[in-house]
Design goal:
single chain; five-stranded mixed sheet; 2 domains; 199 residues; 13 strands; 16% helix; D-amino Acid Aminotransferase, Chain A, domain 2; alpha+beta; four-stranded antiparallel sheet; D-amino Acid Aminotransferase, Chain A, domain 1
Length: 199
Amino acid sequence: MSLLVESIKILNGRIYNLRLHEERANLTRKQLYGLSRALDLRSNIIIPEEYKKGLVKCRIIYREAVHQVSFQPYQKRIISCVKIIENNDIDYSYKWQKRDNMDALFNMKGKADEIIIVKNGLLTDAYYYNIVCLTGKDLFTPSRPLLHGVMREKLLNNKRIIPWDITVPNLKEFDRIYLVNALTPLGDIHFSPDQIMYE
């Protein structure tokens, strides 16, 4: 069985949303392995001096315990075109280190930079991101994501986004579509509906 991963944002030496990462990791361990003793991720994050400036991804590999902690500079992706990929069998309920099923869908993107995965007629997630859609002043997120991401959870907790069953035809009704993850806050990556490929 694959190991699990948490990707944590560090900006100029500050660790972001650690409580949400720990909650997800410990819920995962309890559901998969029946473990109730919590992991203390903070005690495993010792930031090397060279990673105390700029935006850094801290990658924690774990299962019953923490197996590995690594750091690398992180750069925002440039996304100009997104392709709709439909798959009713995809499951990514836990943040596995090996993502063969997700990789297979991403490899179908052709000339696009990113994919939006549709399952049973509803939007779920992009490849490495949760989705947020803007119409007017309202922000909606798919109510059935493949993975409950940390940034999505933070936005929900702050009542900034509204869960909604979003269909492919709905996409043309939105002003902008945003992609978010632990290292990508709302507003960093966005595109318009006319940048989406539907086949």
